[in-house]
Amino acid sequence: MPATLPPPPTTSLAARLLNVFATPGEVFEEVRISPVNHANWLVPVLLAAIVGAISAVIIFSQPAILQQIHEQQAKMFDQSVKAGKMTQADADKAVAMAEKFSGPTVLKISGSVAAVFGSCARVFWWALVLWLLGLWFLKVKFSYLKAVEVAGLASMITILGGIVALLLTVNFGKETSPSLALAVNDFNPKNPLHLLFAAANLFSFWTIGVMSVGLARLAGVRFPRAMVLVAGYWLALQFFLISVGAVAGNLVSIK
Predict the structure, then answer these.
(1) Cα–Cα distance between 241 and 19 in angstroms, integer?
(2) What is the DSSP string of the chain?
């Protein structure tokens, strides 16, 4: 009878949160064979919410960021005036109203709330994606809660990416991320190419790789097979979002 390999030793939560950066395969193998541990996703969600809320407060405390937001709003209304869609008086009133609802306090609060809800939604959405990929394409059914644990631990990569993005934003004086968008001087959210550059984020690629390792472990398949599925989903999502963003931008310009 062939000798069976001993199960990997149980590690602490802190070790799992750190080891997911270097040895995600070992971390997810432990998750697979261990009882459900809600701390594996709850703690990363809380960390992501805290980092996101702090980032919102810091970013929207930067005068340069606020000035850019107000300039974009004024530019949009100026285009409407030039197109004859509204009078200058109406545009001035609209700008004043927009600035009222995009003041530092409002932006900090809304950004913090979005970070809290977004951190939770991101983990459960990724878990659903992994679970469905396993069920539909790999024909393997594993526990959804296990997928939540994997997505939660993998979100540590996203948290690190958020910290790096915050540092870059404060340093450059504009909202940016560790992506090809750094090479764009005047980023235009209506430009599909600019959106594509923004999607080419180092930490997004890292997250895809770690999520693929998690799917491979949960489904018991080879990493390349899982990688094709996860990367395929991510690429499809990015092209969909870029297309929607470009169409929405054009519609706003037409109006």
Answers:
(1) 32
(2) -PPPPPPPPP--HHHHHHHHHH-HHHHHHHHHHSPP-THHHHHHHHHHHHHHHHHHHHHTT-HHHHHHHHHHHHHHHHHHHHTTSS-HHHHHHHHHHHHHHTSHHHHHHHHHHHHHHHHHHHHHHHHHHHHHHHHHTS-----HHHHHHHHHHHHHHHHHHHHHHHHHHHHHTS---SBGGGG-SS--TT-HHHHHHHH-BHHHHHHHHHHHHHHHHHHT--HHHHHHHHHHHHHHHHHHHHHHHHHHHHHHHH-
Q: Model-level pTM?
A: 0.89
* Cα 156 from Cα 34, distance rounded (Å): 20
Select from 222, 192, 229 the least CA-distant residue to 208.
229
Q: Cα–Cα distance between 144 and 124 in angstroms, integer?
A: 9
Report pLDDT digits (tens) over 96-120.
777 777 788 999 999 999 999 999 9
Q: How many whole angstroms separate alpha carbon 1 and alpha carbon 24?
A: 30
CA gap 53, 88 in Å, rounded:
37
- What's the pLDDT tens digit per position in 179-211? 988 888 877 777 888 889 999 999 999 999 999
